[in-house]
Amino acid sequence: MKKWVKFTHKIFNSIFTPGKGMFYRKSLVLILLITSIPGLIMGFLMYWFAGGRIEEELVQLHKNQITRRAESLGVQFDHSELTMSHLAFEPLLDYRLLETDFNRKFDITRDITKTLIIMEGSMTLTTKLEFYMGGTTPIQFSPEYNLLPPDSEEWKQSETLLKQGPPVYWTLLPSRLGIREKPDLALVHKMPGGTMAPYGILIARTNRERLQDLLKTLTPYEDGEAFLMQEDGTLLASTGTGDSSALLQELRSEVLHHPVGTPSFIWNGDHNKYSVSFGKFERIGTTWIYVSAAPIDAITRPVVFLSKLVMQISCAGMLLAAALAWFASRRIYSPMARLMGLLSYGKQTSSVLMQDEFQVIEEQWQHLTRQSTALQSKLETQLPQVRQGFLYQLVQGYLFSYAEEELRERMRQYGWRVEECRYQVLFIRVLGMTQASMQGRFSLGDEGLVSFAEANIAQEMTEERFGQCQVINFHDLTVGVLLELDAQEFDGKNSLYDLGEALIQMLNGILKLQATVIVGGTCTDVKHIPWVFEEARLALNYRKWDTDNQILDVELLRGREKTPGSQYPFAVEREIIQAMRTGKLEETELQIKAFLEAMTQGGATDLDVRQGGMNLLGTLEREIMQSGLNPNELLSPINRFEQLSELRESEQILQWFVKQIIRPFMEEMENRSDYKIKKIVDQAIRFIEEHYMRDISLDECAEYCGTNAFLLSRSFKQVAGKNFIDYLTDLRMERARALLRDSEQKIFDIAEQVGYQHSYFNRLFKKFEGVTPTQYRERVRRT
After folding, report:
1. Which segment, 252-266, 519-533, 551-565, is predicted with the most confidence on average?
2. Residue 657 belongs to what domain range?
C-alpha cells in the first residue's frame, strides 16, 4: 500500500513540477482519461454481458446439445427396431419350425441359437434376445433351447405377449434378476413378420445400465435428472437409482402439463432453478418423451466466475493504465522521432535523420502499398483454390455451426454474388473404368486423373453456358457443380437438361466413358447448400444399373411411384455357397456372375444391386463363420461393407468378391486337415440333391465321390449330423411336401418323383407327418 501511495505522489509531482509545459500536463491528463475511464466502462460492460447474454447463450447451447444427443439416443432405438425387423423375416424362423423336432434336428436348434447370439451382439442396447414359440409344446430360446412348462410364469407371460398387442411394440417386462428389480424395457416382435396369425414372438430386453449411460449424456451434471416416459406418464428409464424420487415425480408432472410447442423451459423446483428440455420419440405404436433437467447454476457457474475475474482484472488494468500514461507522457515530446524509428525499423542512420520526416514517411508508405498490391495479386491467383476449399468444407458440413450471415460474408469476400440469387446443384459421375482398363485406355489407378479431366470439362462447359460456377472434384469419379442463377433470367430445367446432354456427349467423346448427370434441387440460403448436394448425391442410388448414360432429376425422383426392383436370386446364392464349400473357384466365379446378372435385370437401380451385394456378403461371411473361421482374421482388415458399397460396376463387384472373399477362404480351407473330408461330404450331398428321385445307394454315392462306403458313412454322420439314409429320406420328404403344397400332380406321380413306390410312400409320409399325403394337401390348402 505504501508503494502505491508513493507512486501516486510521484505522478502528482510530475504533473505540477515547474519547467514542464502545459502541453505536457494536458497530454498526461488526457491520456489518463483515455486509458482509465474506458477500461472501467469495459469492465462493467463485460460483467453485464457475461452475466446476462453469455448466460443465455450457454443455456441455449446446452438445450441444443440435449436435442442432438436425444437424436443420437433415438438412432440407437431405431437400430434395435430395424435389426428386430430383419430378424423377423429371417427364413430360418418361418412356420416350418412348428413342425420341427428340435431334439432330433439339433442342427436347426444350433442355427437358431447362433443366429440369436449374433443378433444379440449386434444390438448395442440389448442385453438379452429371446425367441418364444407357442403350440402344444411351448419352446423358448434364451438364446439356448429349453422347454417351458405350460403353467409356468414365463409361459403365461409369453402367451400374453403373443396374443395381445400389435405385431411390433415396446413394453415393460418383469426383470429376470428379481422381483425387487426395475422392470426391463423390451421390444416385442411377433413371428413371422407381416403375418396375421403369428406362431411366436421375439423379445429384445434393453440393457438397463447401457440405457442409463445414454440418458446420462442428456444431463452431464451431477445434480441433473434425465428420464424416458410414455405420453401417459409411465416411466420407462431414468438416470437415478430410484424412480419415485420427489424431483423426478415433480418434473414428470410438470412436463406432462406443459403447453405443447415449447420443448424447453425454466423450472423452479427442489430449491433450485433448472433448465428443462424435453421432446418426443415416435416409436412403433407409441410416443415416448425424453426429459433432461440441469441446474442453471451448474451451467453458468464458470461464466459467472470468469465475469467477476474480468471485473477485477479491469480494475487492476485501470491502475496499470495510469502508470503507463505517466510513462508515455514523458516521451510525448518526441513523437516524430519515435515514428521515424518505427518506419526505419529502429535503425535511424544520419542520412535518414537528415531527410525530411514526411518524405521518409511517404517513401515507406509507397513501399508498403507495393507490398500490399503484390499480396493482393497473389490472393487473386489463389482465389479459385480458396473458393473450392471453402465450398468443399461447406458441402462436407464443416461449417454447419456458422450463421447464415457469416457464410454470406465469406462468400462475398471470395467473389460470390449472394443477393437476389439462388443456387442450383449438378452432380456428375463417370462409369466404365473397368472396361476402359481392360481395353488399355486407363489403368485402375487413374481414377484421380479421370476425375481431374472430368472436373475441367464440367468447368469449361458450365461457364460457357451459365457464366460463373464452382466445381468440386471429389476425386472418386464424381464431380459437383454449384451454379448461381438469377430467377428472372433463368428459363427453367430445359437449359440444365441441355447442359447434361452436352456433358455426357463430351465425356463419351473425350474420355470414352459413360456418365450420369443428376439435376439437383435449388435453394436460396447458403446453409441449405450441403443438403441440396447430399440430396443430389443420394439420387445416384436410383441410376439404372443396365443403362449407360442417364440424366436424373431430383424433383422427379421425389414424386416417383415405387416400382418393384429385381428379385433376389436365392437359388443362385445357394449355388455360390455350395461351390465355395467344394472349393471350386471357377464355378464360384461363374455363379457370382450369374448372381449379378440376375440382380441387374428388370430395371434394377444402383441401390438395388448394391443392396443385393451386401446381402450376399453377409451370407458368405456367415458361411465362413459356420466353417469355424473368423472373417475379421481371415479376410483383409478393412470395412468390407463400406468398400463394397463404393463399387459401381458389375465386373468390379465380381473381381472384389473373388479377391477379397472367395479366394482367401478357399486357400485357408485347403490348408485345414478336415477340409478333404468336408469336401467329400459336400460332393455326396450334391450327388443326393441331383439324384434323389431315383433309387441310389451309399455304395453308388461313395463310388461317385472316389472313396469307400465305410469312410463316407462315418464322414457323412460327422459333418452333416445325420447318416446317409436319414439325410436322403429327409430331403425326399421335404421335396414331397413342396410338391403337395405347390402343385396339382397326383400322389402316384409325386411318389415316383421323389424316388418311392406309391404304397411305400404313403406309409413313410404318414410316419413322418402323422397324416396321409392327401390329408396333408387338404390341410395345407385350408390354411
Report:
1. 519-533
2. 570-672
Which range, of 54-58, 106-110, 252-256, 716-720, averages the lowest pLDDT?
A: 54-58
Residues 467 and 522 in one domain: yes
Same domain, 539 and 438: yes
**Residue ranges with strand state E in 538-658:** 550-553
The answer to whether 231 touches 238, Cβ cutoff 8 Å, is no
Query: In total, how many domains does the chain have?
Result: 3
CB 566 within 8 A of CB 604: yes
Nearest to 162 by CA among 185, 195, 129: 195
Contact of 165 with 171, CB cutoff 8 Å: yes
The residue type at 99: E
- Taking the C-alpha atoms of residue 112 and residue 96, their distance in angstroms, rounded to an integer, is 13
Which residues, 6+ apart, have CB-to-CB distance to 140 below 8 Å?
130, 131, 132, 133, 146, 147, 148, 154, 158
Number of helices (H), then strands (E), belonging to the chain: the values are 31, 16
436 and 527 housed in the same domain: yes
User: What are the backbone angles phi and psi of residue 141, rounded to the nearest 5°?
Assistant: -110, 120
| One-letter amino acid for residue 227 of the chain | F
* Together in a domain, 619 and 534: no
The residue among 620, 645, 672 that closes a domain is: 672
Q: Which three cell numbers stand for residue 58?
A: 450457454
Residue in the structure block whose three cell numbers are 450457454: 58
Peptide bond between residue 143 and the one before it cis (omega within 30 degrees of 0): yes
Q: How many CB atoms lie within 10 A of CB 370?
A: 10
Q: In angstroms, rounded to a whole number, what is the distance separating the alpha carbons of residues 368 and 386?
A: 25
101, part of any domain: yes
pLDDT at 353: 47
CATH label of the domain that carries residue 138 = 3.30.450
**Residue 373 included in any domain:** no
Q: Where are the beta strands (DSSP E) in 502-650?
A: 514-523, 550-553
**Average pLDDT over all residues of the chain:** 77
CATH number for the domain including 501?
3.30.70.270
If asked whether residues 483 and 630 sit together in one domain, one would say: no
Contacts of 222 (CB under 8 A, 6+ apart): 298
Residues 449 and 477 in one domain: yes
Does residue 546 sit in the same domain as residue 587?
no
Find out whether 623 and 604 touch, Cβ atoms under 8 Å: no
Could you give the CA distance from residue 637 to residue 740 in angstroms, rounded to a whole number?
A: 48
Tell me the CA end-to-end span of the chain in Å, nearest whole number: 101
DSSP tag of 637:
S
CA 527, 529, 534, 539 dihedral sign is positive
How many Å apart are CA 68 and CA 64, to the nearest integer?
Answer: 6
Q: Is the pLDDT of residue 652 over 70?
A: yes
Q: Which of 200, 205, 162, 174 is nearest to 187 (CA)?
A: 205
Strand order in the sheet with 272-283: 235-238, 225-230, 286-295, 272-283, 264-269
Determine the Cα–Cα distance for residues 185 and 204; give it in Å rounded to an integer: 9
Q: Mean per-residue pLDDT for 705-715?
A: 75
Percentage of residues in the chain having pLDDT higher than 90: 0
State the Cα angle at 605 between 603 and 610, rounded to 5°. 130
Of these ranges, 81-95, 463-477, 549-563, the one predicted with the greatest mean pLDDT is: 463-477
Is 355 within the bounds of a domain?
Answer: no
Other Cβ atoms within 10 Å of 520 Cβ, number: 26
Q: What is the CA radius of gyration of the chain?
A: 39
Model confidence at 775: pLDDT above 80: yes
Examine residue 277 and state whether it is found in any structural domain, yes or no: no
Boundary (domain end) residue, out of 619, 637, 672: 672
Supply 366's cell numbers: 509507397
Beta-strand relationship, 235-238 and 168-173: unpaired
Inter-CA distances, 8 with 91, 205, 322, Å: 92, 76, 9
Q: Cα separation of 559 and 497, whole Å?
A: 19
Q: Are residues 426 and 552 in the same domain?
A: yes
pLDDT mean over 168-194: 77
